[in-house]
Design the sequence.
């Protein structure tokens, strides 16, 4: 509950607000006369709501959701989260009814009252972000769990046959030093629609990989390497689309912080609620410095923590696949990362050959290979420029792909 709405546990509020089931909030204006205290006070209900000038109806709903928990009639509480929301909110669930609702541009908040339980559902719909937080109080713990499960199922996105998006989780370390995760619906193509954007060796291996199921995962690391602009990120989005039934993809915005902060790593690795998918793919892009053969010296304990997350004690039974991309040549990568048994697959995503580039552009001749980014650039209005030139064998390149 927001700190803007205070619950006074000892002192009664100057202008108390009735939080009964038919509760009401006084409108602005002169303070009402104080009512005479009741003849008998139920010591199970020590809380009264204090409203500030900045409080909104949302804060009142947050406080009302705790009324039965505070007075002891519903002493059990459960919370859950939904990643990827159904377009239409389902308020009437399990015999409950919607008693309060607050809506804004970024969120819908509903208070539900059912037989022996109370629930608050907060649907966050800002931009492409689509997630919900659900809290339930109930007379018994089993009832709280049952209602929570029903609400999660009612609000989660229903699978569509030809969906063009996939729900991605995005992690980052906040300025306060806490791990933050948000969910965003991301456009993700089907692999069949983009497979001709890749050179034959990569295409063959990705054909095989996109057909995997959870029983086929024999390693903890998936590695895509190759020059910038060859489509590694797009291939990962297509993989998320093909695996969407059983694997949730999460993108770490700051991998350099993930393996340098033990608390951030633990929060990310162990954040697995019961409503989550069977498997999770943790995506780490541009890991050049971390994956090089001198990573132990250059990155301190980061490499050790990465290996611990992949198949060490931290990674045991976590059902987490580390998906990493790098611009480095595979020969320069740390052998501990690429060894058989630990690495599910290492796929080189290189530029198209001259013949493949000609086929891609509809027959236009090419004397040399080209990256996917260069082909798009040359075929767009005003495009044109040098095609792919292999990088020198030394040095490293780190940039967005």
Sequence:
């Amino acid at each position: 509950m927001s700190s803007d709405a205070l619950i006074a546990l000892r002192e009664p509020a100057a202008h108390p607000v009735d939080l009964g089931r038919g509760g009401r909030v006084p409108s602005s204006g002169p303070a009402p006369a104080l009512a005479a205290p009741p003849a008998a006070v139920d010591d199970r209900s020590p809380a009264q709501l204090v409203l500030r000038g900045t409080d909104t109806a949302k804060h009142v709903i947050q406080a009302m959701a705790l009324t039965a928990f505070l007075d002891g009639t519903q002493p059990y509480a459960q919370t859950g989260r939904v990643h990827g929301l159904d377009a239409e909110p389902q308020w009437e669930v399990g015999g409950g009814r919607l008693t309060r609702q607050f809506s804004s541009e970024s969120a819908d908040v509903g208070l539900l009252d059912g037989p022996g339980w109370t629930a608050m559902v907060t649907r966050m719909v800002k931009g492409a972000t689509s997630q919900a937080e659900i809290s339930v109080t109930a007379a018994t713990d089993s009832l709280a769990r049952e209602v929570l499960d029903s609400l999660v199922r009612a609000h989660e996105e229903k699978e569509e046959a030809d969906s063009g998006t996939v729900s991605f989780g995005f992690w980052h370390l906040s300025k306060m030093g806490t791990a933050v995760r948000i969910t965003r619906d991301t456009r993700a193509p089907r692999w069949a629609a983009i497979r001709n954007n890749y050179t034959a060796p990569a295409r063959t291996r990705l054909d095989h990989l996109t057909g995997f199921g959870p029983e086929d995962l024999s390693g903890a690391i998936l590695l895509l390497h190759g020059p910038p602009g060859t489509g590694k990120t797009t291939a990962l989005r297509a993989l998320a689309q093909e695996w969407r039934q059983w694997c949730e993809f999460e993108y770490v915005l700051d991998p350099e912080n993930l393996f340098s902060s033990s608390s951030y790593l633990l929060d990310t690795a162990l954040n697995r609620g019961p409503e989550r998918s069977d498997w999770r793919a943790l995506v780490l892009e541009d890991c050049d410095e971390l994956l090089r053969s001198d990573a132990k010296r250059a990155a301190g304990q980061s490499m050790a923590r990465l290996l611990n997350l992949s198949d060490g004690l931290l990674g045991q039974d976590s059902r987490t696949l580390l998906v990493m991309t790098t611009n480095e040549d595979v020969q320069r990568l740390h052998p501990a990362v690429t060894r058989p048994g630990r690495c599910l697959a290492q796929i080189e995503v290189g530029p198209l050959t001259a013949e493949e580039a000609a086929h891609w552009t509809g027959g236009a001749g090419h004397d040399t290979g080209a990256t996917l980014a260069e082909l798009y650039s040359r075929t767009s209005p005003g495009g044109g420029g040098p095609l792919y030139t292999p990088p020198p064998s030394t040095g490293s390149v780190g940039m967005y792909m």
